[in-house]
Amino acid sequence: MSVHNNDLRKVTTHRLTEMKSRGEKISMLTAYDYSMASIVDQANMDVILVGDSASNVICGNVTTLPITLNDMIFLATAVTKAVHRALVVVDMPFGSYQGNSKEAVASAIRIMKETGADSLKIEGGQEILESLTRILSTGIPVMGHLGLMPQSINKYGTYPVRAKEEWEANKLMEDAIALEKAGCFAIVLEKIPANLAEKVAKTLRIPVIGIGAGNKVDGQVLVMHDMLGINKGFSPRFLRRYADLHTSISNALQQYISDVKNGDFPSENEQY
Predict the structure, then answer these.
(1) Could you give the number of structural domains in the chain?
(2) Within a domain: residue 5?
(3) pLDDT(50) > 80
(4) How many CB atoms lie within 10 A of CB 35?
(5) Which pLDDT belongs to residue 1?
(6) Which pLDDT score is estimated for 8?
(7) Spatial distance between the Cα atoms of 59 and 67, rounded to a whole number of angstroms
(8) For every residue of the chain, which 3-state class applies, written as one string?
(9) What CA–CA distance (Å, rounded) separates 68 from 122?
(10) Are 71 and 91 in contact (CB under 8 A)?
(11) Is residue 151 domain-resident?
(12) Domain check: are 196 and 248 in the same one?
């Protein structure tokens, strides 16, 4: 059990707002399967994100674009079965909400009904307000996502720090205010200057969760495979590795192979 949070009540969107109000930082991490989600939840993580980053770390795609609505529902269903305390947020995948608000509502309702998740996350600012408003009108809680938006990688061409220029910083602030006004319960800010992220967090009443956005926001999110050192090929400046599971797992596998080859496994005590 975490020494930082012994409150075992179910985390809700309202409780996240309360946490911001009292200055308590919000912890958020991705999970994509039952077993790992169970461990993350039992550690007292506040928010578990079933991220479209599964396209990269689970499916082996270069971008998040190929993952489908059915894929996300499959993964999220497994995660929600494991979670008892954390707020479960599911990414709406590329193509499930952009440009067609009717399809956005249908996609959102499918995710909520079929997975049992608590809320959804979508990328974009004022350009997706129509879809966002229609989703919110059904009573589904939505988390926004601004700054570097991986679903727009083909527009960027790469993954640079966003909103360094004044015009883009101003737009990001306008978008954040618009998302809050529309009814988002929180916003993720990805890979933007720390001073801008701090300004956004101070301006908004809703929680602002950062990934590569400095430590003056209301909480932090990372991809589980990155922070646990499973994926060693991704090392951005904002990433802190809390374990080296790639090495630990590799050593365990090599030992298993050796024991099998040498006839040391199973031993007499490991058979019937």
Answers:
(1) 2
(2) no
(3) yes
(4) 10
(5) 38
(6) 74
(7) 8
(8) CCCCCCCCCCCCHHHHHHHHHCCCCEEEEECCCHHHHHHHHHCCCCEEEECCCHHHHCCCCCCCCCCCHHHHHHHHHHHHHHCCCCEEEEECCCCCCCCCHHHHHHHHHHHHHHHCCCEEECCCCHHHHHHHHHHHCCCCCEEEEEECCHHHHHHHCCCCCCCCCHHHHHHHHHHHHHHHHHCCCEEEEECCCHHHHHHHHHHCCCCEEEECCCCCCCEEEECHHHHCCCCCCCCCCCCCCCCCHHHHHHHHHHHHHHHHHHCCCCCHHHCC
(9) 14
(10) no
(11) yes
(12) no
Q: Is 190 a catalytic residue?
A: yes
Residue 44 phi/psi, 5° resolution?
Answer: 75, 35
Are residue 117 and residue 21 in the same domain, yes or no? yes
Q: Pseudo-torsion of CA 103, 106, 110, 113, nearest 10°?
A: 160
Catalytic residue among 190, 198, 268, 270: 190
Do 220 and 271 lie in one domain? The reply is: no
CA distances from 243 to 65, 163, 225 (A): 28, 31, 10
As given in the structure block, the two tokens for residue 237 are 């400046």
Confidence of residue 6 (pLDDT cuts 50, 70, 90): low
Structural domain containing residue 249: 244-272
Read off the pLDDT of residues 126-185 as tens digits, 9 standing for 90 and up: 999 999 999 999 999 999 999 999 999 898 877 889 999 999 999 999 999 999 999 999
Q: Residue for token digits 């090929």?
A: 233
Q: Tokens 């996502």 sit at which residue?
A: 145
Whichever domain contains 29, its CATH number is 3.20.20.60
Do 31 and 72 lie in a common domain? Answer: yes
Tokens representing 204 are 């908004």
